[in-house]
Amino acid sequence: MHNALMQKLVQALIDGDQATAVAQTHQLQAAGLAREAIITDGIEAAMTQLDARCTVEQFNLLEIMLAGRAVMSAMKVLYPGDAAMFPSQGTIILASLEGDVHDLGKNILKMVLTAKGYRVVDCGKDCPVDRLIATARQEAPLAVGISGLITTVIPQVRQVRTKMHALGLTQIKVMAGGAALKQATVQSLQVDFIGETAFDCLHYVETLPGGAL
Amino acid sequence: MNSLERIHAALLFQPHDRVPVIAQVFGHAAILAGVDLKAYVQDGAVLAACQRDALAYYDYDAVFALMDTSVETEAVGSVLDYRTNAYPTVQAYVFAKHDDLAQLHLPDPQCDGRMPELLKAIRILRHAVGNEVLVVGCVLGPMTLVSQLMSLQEALYFAIDAPEQFIQLLDFATRVIIRFGVAQLEAGAHLPIIFEPSSSPEVIPAAFFRELILPRLKTICSTFTQAGAICNWLHIAGKSTPILPFYPEAGVGIANFDFSVDPASAMQALPQTCLDGNLKPLAFVDASPAFIAEEATHLLQHFAQRGGFILSSGCEIPPEARPENITALVQAAR
């Protein structure tokens, strides 16, 4: 019975069916399943299938956003009221830099990372480099992720790793993504990784020391 | 051959003296002239002067009366944030709270927001270049305009959560686009480019495009043709290959393809449609003139036998592009 309920949850999450995902999560809890089991066999199983489906050619924002919203709603059922209770596999800081007010890509990465158990500190959009770095000093993340839709933020992106290294934050990796930044190379952007999709960034984070699940 | 004749020949796959070059120079024209982008996007006379200067400097085949992607939403009622040397962004979306659709204001291009300034820029440019050079106006596509009325994230959720209202909003957007585009044609544009990045298959599935966007693009294109557009030019960025086969049905005469689309697959999908593309926009900022020349030559060789090609970038050439790289693009076709 649990297995059938879990499969319905997985399918609802993949379909981006928020209402069914929430209802199935409630049912699984009512049936006595621990939330850790619901995360492992339900949410993470769905994310794995979604990851496989989201090859570069099939990836589209609509499907991933709907799935992400369903996942976040299911997580809220499991951990009502306090995001800090989510199991954390490490901290990731995300931002869109000053002058860039587009944050959809960043929000999607936030959903993907959160669903995989990472604690995400979101510096928001239009974020000055110095504020991003101050947050990195405070939070000691595994990585800083920068999303960029406009090319004019590139000079700011180039400052991030250099400034962090000058402060001794050499262990923090810098990853980038978004329509403008993914045209560039890691060398030209002076970052450690450029992701074509949110799942690319997830995979990169999972390779970092302390980031493997 | 003048530029307009050259483009016309490319449209019809007929012989021409050389392949036309349309560098997608929008805000870069302001930077080149030493003008604040903030002034460029608010003053039609300034925009037209910068475009004319850029045309004189680069000697390519088209000028653009194109401000940014917020002109229509501002005219409907969104509040913008204008910053020095940057394109404006939406600070408060007019449809953020999913209010009553009937309350949305259908803008009058002659008096609302910056629409009159854009029309002014078109009149000045057309008066200056006549039928020598292509004068391109700009409208957003329906999905992109809906995204600008409520944010892309909200628009995508709205499409799923309230599909009937979403369709009504798409129809409202279509009315705005038609009214603005026809006004641009009346002001002297040879055509308004239809800028529709939010319909990229990277954003919405191809079936969504086919069912909801394509019928409205057909209406927009047929209306523009009736109003005198020399053809319809559709610009959808990103990996557009899955939706390219729908373009002829929409009435598209020039199809932009981005750097992420393989030229061979674009040719295969659109054997009888003029294509424009597809150098990587960022290369105009961080690559060398030699690299641009090599890439452009490669493209010209790809299309040499087929024809029906306009040499261009895959999307807007960034405002901060190196001028020598744009010169290299233009020279590659000569």
Query: Can you tell me the overall shape of chain A?
Result: elongated
Biggest sheet record of chain B: 8 strands, parallel
- How many strands appear in the DSSP assignment of chain B? 10
Number of helices of chain A: 9
Q: Distance between termini of chain A? A: 28 Å
Oligomer: heterodimer
Q: Classify the fold: give the CATH topology of chain B.
A: TIM Barrel
Count of separate structural domains of chain B: 1
Estimated share of beta-strand residues of chain A: 5-15%
Q: What is the largest interface, and how many residues per chain?
A: A-B, 24 and 31 residues
Which segments of chain A are poorly predicted (pLDDT under 50) over 5 or more consecutive residues?
none
Overall CATH class of the largest domain in chain A:
Alpha Beta
Q: What share of residues of chain B is helical?
A: 40-55%
CATH class of chain B: Alpha Beta
Order of helices and strands of chain B: HEHHHEHEEHEHHHEHEHEHEHHEH
Distance between the termini of chain B: 13 Å
The average pLDDT value of chain A, as a whole number, equals 89
SS field, number of helical segments of chain B: 15
Low-confidence stretches of chain B: none
Q: If classified by CATH, what would the architecture of chain B be?
A: Alpha-Beta Barrel
